[in-house]
Structure formats: structure tokens, C-alpha cells
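User: two proteins, same treatment. go.

Assistant:
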Amino acid sequence: MSFDIQGKLHEIFAENQVSDKFRKREFVLEIPDGSYTQYAKFQLTQDKCSLLDQFQKGQEVKVSFNLSGKPFVKNGETLYFTNLQAWRLEAANAGGGNFGGAPASAPAQAQAPTFYSSEADNDLPF
């Protein structure tokens, strides 16, 4: 499932070489949500780690990401992990970073986040 969301870069972490063949880099996006602010951590992997190099904390960005989740059994207990796997970042302002070829629009100010799915509506009850 692919989604887009816009927010402010709250935290950018250093690249982490997990193994000989796997590296990742994480960042936190600050997302206004009415009177509350949400903080969502995203992950970039492999060659996508360098996408963050052109951005700074505090900058407004649009993130394209996939949502994935997996169960993990430990000591007989099933735990669930959710991952927000980013695959594209672009500046949210109209002045730069428009990588997708679509016209850029001005960022929404203090509005709830809007998620867009590239797939047809599913049967989720919410």
C-alpha cells in the first residue's frame, strides 16, 4: 500500500549499517492533527538513505511511503511490528524538490493530515 503525507522534519537520524548487505536511515515527521501533533517515524533503506541528505530539520516535506506490518513470535507471545517505509521525499513548498513531475502546491497550514492511497478502497471499517 502506498501513501503520501506532508509534515515538518522533526528529527533526522544517522545512517545505520545493520549488516554487510543492509543499511537504513530513520527520520521523524511532525504532523499537525487538529489540536494535537503527531510524530511518525519513517525508515529509508539501501540506496534510498541518501534522500535525506538534501533536507534539514524543520523543513516542510512530502513523504511517499509504503505501510507494512509483520507478526513476530517471542516466548510464545505474538508481537506485531508496523513499518513506514519511505521511498520518496520532496520539498513541500512550490519552490523546489518537485521530483514527481506533477505541479507542486503550497503546504496546508495547521490542518489535519491527508493520506492518499494508490490502491482502491479496501474493506477496513475505519
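Protein 2:
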Amino acid sequence: MALYETLAQHYIDDIQAQRLPAGSRLPALRTMAKQHQVSMTTATKTYDYLQQTGWIYAQPQSGYFVANQLESTTFPSLDIKSIEQRDPKRFAPLNGYNPASALFSPLGTSMIAPELQPSIALQRSIKRVTQKAGNHLFQYPETQGDKGLRSALAEHFRHYNLAFTAADFVITNGCIDAVKLAIESVTKEGDTIAISSPCFSGLLDLLSALSRKVIEIPISEQGLDLGHLETLLQQSLIKASLFSTSNMNPTGMTLPIEQKQALAKLATQYKTPMIEDDVYFELSHQKQLTLPAKYWDKEGYVIWCGSFSKTLAAGLRLGWCVPGQYLTPYLNQHALTSFGVNGLIQSCMAEFINTGEYRSHVNKIRTVLNQQIHSYQQFLLEHLPATAKISAPKGGIVLWVQIPSLNAVQLEKEANKQGVDIRSGACFSTHDFYHDCLRINCGWPLENTGDKYSTYQQLISLCNIINDLMKAEA
């Protein structure tokens, strides 16, 4: 065992024995190195190891803290006795799966607070681009996207050992647009697509609008039910599959590497396209990101989609797709629905990536989100009923909560009356299965500013509503 692992075990023992309770501040790196008479390199490796294994988290400008040690939580997994094809339109909640809320609440929409975004650095990139902008900005952009941005993306993802070239990418108006084009490129109205259960509400609304049917594949702590998926493929019951694989919404879980490999293998074996919605790919809380299923796709059956909406700014509406062998139909469909993506925004994003500012921001925001997730977990543990199950994601910006006997749809209505926006479990499935579940966004710092719309006060209100509903049920 390496020295840093031995030292890490010392801290793990103290945490398990509660000599270091959750929230305790650990010594600064230099102090720790002196205390244990080790080098700064060993001290850094020790804390990195403890972060990666979930024992501690870093808070920028504040130090290292002991993480909440939530017991391994098992959430309900959709129990399907037989293969069931469903039309998502028929089972949609009253206002759709992903309704646009008339009120603002930091707990509703999955996004990062604007104050955590690098607005000044982004403004500098925009200013540099506009100062040297040529006539090309006044022309229609290329259908495939600005080559400068495609090249910047290829170089950016090379740092994650993803070997793409500029020619592999297509630039889109956000990730949902990338997924929409993929669906339209490989399926037609009435076709059936396999999705996970639960599934991001925006995808269910999209599939409804495109008149595609779905079959939900159960997902558990072990991952997708790949046996169920392969049965569908063997019987030619689906034309494509659509899955998130990393830090997924709403559960926050990431599929094991073995499952990602298996998904790519199944797509190739049955020559059936798999659309990978990987919008949260870069928001792992671990130091090393897990690779997407696309990494193991050697014949181009995986269509990889992503965007800057979750990592940087939703308002940019800028995404990308690596369509693999479906590049030609994808580009044809893109050309039918738009004349390309805003050229100025593409050039500005290429500049932002090439300066290294984007990578720097992503590395920082991952640390911040890790800290925020732990803060929200601790808050909910203290304020929700003891029966509540709270997810412990290793990435992303949402928490999945189950409270047995809770009517989450009623909770959503009562919360909205009090100006609190959350998403009930009904938003994430065509089945009435997640009726006691809800999703909470953790993208805003948990601060008590005294304002009734602060995240702290919103969470207080939400927990009070939940506790009142549970008392009424009892």
C-alpha cells in the first residue's frame, strides 16, 4: 500500500469512528504535511484519494471537510413483468413532463447559479472575437458548424482520451436540439425507442412531440437492465435507444464502465443506433471523469450529444453531436430545420476553449458542485422525515429523493402555491411508479440571505410542506 493510501486510511478510520464527524474541517495541506512529516505531493495525493472515494470534499477558499456518509441507498426500480410499448402523450402529466414554470425557484430547473459562472472571462473572449471579427460573421454559418469551434472541441476532449477530429462534430442549438436531430435522423413517427426509467422529463416531452413511442428500461443501483434491452433488440421491437450514461438526470447516477461498454457492443451487434445524451459528462465530482459509451463505439452506432448548457451557460444554446456513421442523414436533417447556429457565439466559444478558460472553469465548478451537493444532503437529512431516502451522486447537480407514502404530485402543487418549484417523480416516467419521489436542483449555493427566495429559505419551505403533508397522511 502506498504511503498516501496508508495516510488516507488513518482519516477514514477517524471518520468511521466519528472522531471526525460530518462537516468537520480537516487541516490545511501544509499543516497536514507537517503533522505527518510527509511531502506536499503525498499530502495532496492523500486528500485527492479521500475526495475520489467520497470521504471528504473541498470547498474553494475554505479548505477540506468531512463528507456526509450516507448509507448506500436503494431506490425503487420499475418492475415490468412484460415488455410494454407506451405512447408518452397518453401518460403525460397535466402540463407535460417538463412544464415551464411561471415562477422562479433555484430548486426546480437543473442548472448552475449565474454567480458561479465565469462571466468576466467569457466577456473578455466575446470582446476579443468581436474586435477582430471578419465578414464571415455576416454570412450564413456552415451547416456542420464553425470549423474553429469543432477543432477546439476535438482538442478539448482529447484531454479525456476521446479521439475525435473536427470533421466528427456537428454544432447544434443546445443538447436537446442535438438529440432531436438524432431521433429524426434514425427513426420516423410511430417508431419505438428504448429509454431509461426514470428518464429526463425534457426527453419525454421531446419524444411526445415527435410522436415516438417508448419502452422504459428499469434502472437500479447496478445500472440498466441490459437483459431487458437485449430482448428488445433481439425481437426488433425498437428502432433506437436513448440513454444518459453519466451523472444522469434525475437520479445523478453514472452507469458502470462495464455497462457503457456493453451498450456500445449491443448497438453494434444489433446494428441499432444508440443516442447518448451526455450533457452532464464533465460534471463528475471525482478527479477522473468516467468515459462515455461513445468511447467504446468503433463502428459509429453511438450518437454522442452534449452541450455547454449545464457546465457554462444555458442561455448560449450551443451544443454538439458526434453522429458517427449517421453523419450524412444528421447533416441533411440539420439543414432542413435551420441555416446553422449563430456564428458569433460559435467563434466566442472557440476562443473561450482555446484560451484554457473553459477547462479551468469546469475544473472549478466540479469542486463547487461537490460541496453544494453535500450541503444539500446534510440539510435534507436534518429536516426531512427519517424515512426519506436521499441519493448520493458522484456527479451532476441534482438529488433524487424518495419519501414512502408521500404524494409527490400533491407536494408539487402545494409547493408551487408557496413559490417553490420542484419536480415530482411523475415528470420522469410514463408509469405511475415514482409517485413518492422528487428531484431537487443543487446548482445554487445553499445560503441564508434572509430573502424568502434564497435557496435556504426555499428548502425550509419545501421541507415544511413535506412534513405537513406527511402528518396529514398519518
